[in-house]
Design brief:
This protein is of the alpha+beta class. The chain contains 7 helices and 12 strands. Helix 1 crosses helix 2. The two termini are about 45 Å apart.
């Protein structure tokens, strides 16, 4: 089975598709089908095998296909403005962030964010009557919004979520603590307002190093006597111990720092 990874949006997820075309290099524009519609996408990767896929590559996109897709993209941008007018008319608490026609225009998909659940049934009817096609409204999270819109992270690089992350892994405040970072939200939160995805990248290594260190506040026995650990530094493998009002520097064994 020849399987390729295809993106239908620049910052979208990679969807794995069965490919019946022998020569299909990365970067090829293709027309893909599922059981509902035709989609226009770009090949971004290859995989040796895939357990499940719902999409099939139909053909390499022609020049005419590219013109059709360009018109779809232009009309999708206009559709956002129309949708916002209907949202205001129906007095709904939601914000549209994206809209996309399928290649065959059998469906128009709107993505929105909202602080709570939204009854958008009347909005869907209004949009269906206006655009004369099937309407889908998808509520996405704040991290998905950042992925769709893109941006620059505090590191100065393009957001991980909008460039190569296909799924959002769980990120916890303990990951920041393991890395001995300041818990200032402006330092550990991304542009989406949630914890930085990159806190998860090296957490396994930080957790391992921390597990070899004594806990802050614990009692330890040293060459200078018994004392209480007041601070640790997982990067150097050293920690400070308070013994009789004097602070001593201690170091974990070499085998613990590996």
């Amino acid at each position: 089975m020849n399987v390729v990874g295809v993106k239908f949006e620049t910052n979208g997820r990679v969807i794995y598709c069965n490919n019946n075309i022998i020569e299909l290099p990365v970067g090829s524009d293709v027309i893909v089908s599922n059981d509902k519609c035709l989609l226009y996408g770009k090949v971004v990767s290859f995989v040796e095998s895939c357990d499940k896929f719902d999409y099939v590559v139909q053909r390499i996109a022609t020049e005419q296909d590219k013109k059709i897709q360009l018109k779809n993209e232009t009309d999708s941008i206009k559709a956002i403005g129309v949708c916002r007018n209907f949202i205001e008319k129906n007095k709904l608490e939601m914000r549209i962030i994206n809209a996309n026609y399928t290649f065959d225009r059998c469906q128009l998909i709107f993505k929105f964010v909202s602080d709570g659940r939204v009854d958008f049934r009347q909005l869907a009817r209004d949009l269906g009557a206006y655009f004369k096609t099937r309407i889908e409204l998808r509520q996405v999270g704040i991290r998905d919004k950042a992925k769709i819109l893109g941006g620059i992270g505090p590191c100065g690089r393009f957001l991980c979520c909008s460039t190569y992350l296909n799924n959002f892994d769980s990120v916890s405040i303990n990951m920041a603590k393991n890395q001995m970072l300041s818990l200032n939200p402006s330092k550990i939160n991304g542009v989406c307002g949630r914890l930085l995805c990159c806190l998860n990248y090296e957490d396994e290594s930080y957790s391992y190093l921390k597990s070899k260190m004594p806990a802050v506040g614990s009692l330890v026995t040293t060459n200078n006597g018994m004392g209480r650990v007041v601070s640790i530094d997982i990067f150097t493998g050293k920690y400070k111990v308070l013994i009789d009002d004097t602070i001593y520097d201690e170091e974990v064994k070499d085998d613990c720092k590996k």
